[in-house]
Write a structure and sequence with these properties.
This protein is of the alpha+beta class. It contains eleven helices and eleven strands. It is elongated, with a radius of gyration of 27 Å.
């Protein structure tokens, strides 16, 4: 076995036993090899189960696999690999002394017996059947993470009879408020065209409606967070949700104007903030001839100059 072979095989194992994508990397593969004391000269049948701390794992990686990590990456090893190994039930934490203080420099980890038995079969004809038995008795960490993520998704009422779910987080909660509070109040009878999602770019998208309005969507274009259509006035509202960055400033106004070139509807640019406190951070950046909506004062709009209020800036546009 070569050094690269062992790392490659360890990566294959981590994928096979259901570690999430964030743990499918060289660092995690080397941690697994260290937990098994599997040096390049050994076969998987020779895997062991020593007690190993984080620093010794890093030293193992350097000594046997030529992978040197800086001392300040110790926490990355612990939080981004070993913690998930313990969660996945493939390694135990302080099996020799369960009452050892958290973050003790003497903390150690050990591969669990059932995982060790499985890995000893890697590369043999028993591997596939052993893996199937192993997986049948447990949910993989990737499955558990996926379930937890689904449970924490933010529901957004798209239509009276339809809910969509978007990734959790403060940004998504603001998007939910735009759809469920801003839209009914300021765009009554409006149609939701698009809702972005930080986890999946196209959270909800009525491509047919946008095509009818004259826009051929470029999947590479940076869409606003929410797009609403007001049939009564033939307006298209482009709404940006801002929790940490990205109001409709001059640059973004130009980007959106270019992206929606050719649309038959009048364009209205709106920046939404969760609170006035956050809005004040961005006041100097907000473009003129745009609107601002604040979720904690949902019945109000702030208009930035121009002769219209909540309307597109076209000579033919209807007055609000």
């Amino acid at each position: 076995m070569t050094e690269n072979d062992n790392i490659k095989n360890a990566l294959h194992i981590l994928t096979a036993i259901g570690l999430p994508r964030a743990q499918q990397n060289d660092r995690s593969a080397l941690c697994l090899l260290a937990l098994l004391n599997l040096t390049p000269q050994k076969t998987w049948m020779q895997a062991e189960n020593p007690l190993v701390g984080i620093t010794p794992m890093m030293e193992f990686s350097r000594k046997y696999y030529g992978k040197a990590y800086a001392p300040n990456t110790r926490e990355t090893f612990r939080r981004q690999t070993i913690h998930q190994f313990v969660q996945a039930g493939i390694a135990s934490y302080n099996p020799d002394k369960s009452d050892r203080p958290v973050n003790s420099p003497k903390a150690v980890y050990q591969i669990l017996p059932e995982t060790l038995s499985l890995l000893k079969t890697y590369g043999t004809k028993e591997w596939v059947s052993s893996l199937n038995i192993y997986l049948a008795t447990r949910k993989t960490l990737a499955q558990r993470y996926a379930k937890a993520r689904v449970q924490s998704l933010v529901p957004v009422q798209i239509k009276s009879d339809q809910e969509n779910y978007i990734s959790p987080g403060e940004h998504s909660l603001l998007i939910k408020a735009i759809v469920e509070d801003f839209a009914p109040y300021f765009v009554p009878g409006g149609v939701l065209v698009y809702v972005g999602d930080t986890g999946a770019k196209w959270g909800y998208f009525d491509k047919c409606l946008l095509s009818k309005l004259g826009l051929k969507v470029d999947s590479h274009g940076k869409m606003p967070d929410v797009v609403l259509y007001c049939p009564e006035r033939n307006w298209l509202l482009l709404v940006e949700a801002v929790t940490s960055h990205g109001p409709v400033d001059g640059k973004r106004h130009e980007e959106l104007s270019h992206l929606f070139t050719g649309v038959s509807a009048g364009l209205v640019y709106v920046t939404a903030f969760p609170s006035r406190t956050i809005m004040t951070r961005y006041l100097p950046e907000i473009a003129w001839e745009t609107e601002v909506w604040i979720a904690d004062a949902p019945s109000h709009l702030i208009h930035f100059n121009g002769e219209r209020f909540l309307g597109p800036y076209r000579e033919t546009a209807a007055e609000c």
